[in-house]
Amino acid sequence: MEAKKVTVTCKNCGEDVLIDFNTVNFSTEIQVMNGKKQQKRTYIEHCPHCHAINTITSENKEDWGNRKGPNIKFFLFSGFFSCLTVIILGILAIYFAFKGFGFIMDWLFN
């Protein structure tokens, strides 16, 4: 499936800018309303003349082509492990802090 190509007028200099949905950067917005998932993509392209940022938003999945967006499950999975790592490192830091505190108390009072 071929992605859409759109020509927009630059907001800054007025020149035409070609936005190819297959190659440019995009951001994805996902909304869940009444149990149905709605997805919007905003495609971002710099003007070749003045380097201003131009965007266009599309809700039609047929315009996007075969290009995949970010995987939400991957972000949740990596977030879970980063929280788990912080908790484990915190417990280790507290353990060694009390070991050091005990060593200093033994040294002071013996």
Please provide a written account of the structure.
The chain has a three-stranded antiparallel beta sheet with strand order 3-4-5. A two-stranded antiparallel sheet has the order 1-2. The model has no long low-confidence stretch (mean pLDDT 86). It is built from two helices and five strands; from the N terminus they run βββββαα. Strand 3 (25-33) and strand 4 (36-46) form a beta hairpin. Helices cover 38% and strands 33% of the residues. The protein has helices spanning 61-64, 72-109, and strands at residues 5-9, 16-20, 25-33, 36-46, 53-58. It is of the alpha+beta class and 110 residues long.
Quick overview of this protein structure:
This protein has 110 residues and is of the alpha+beta class.
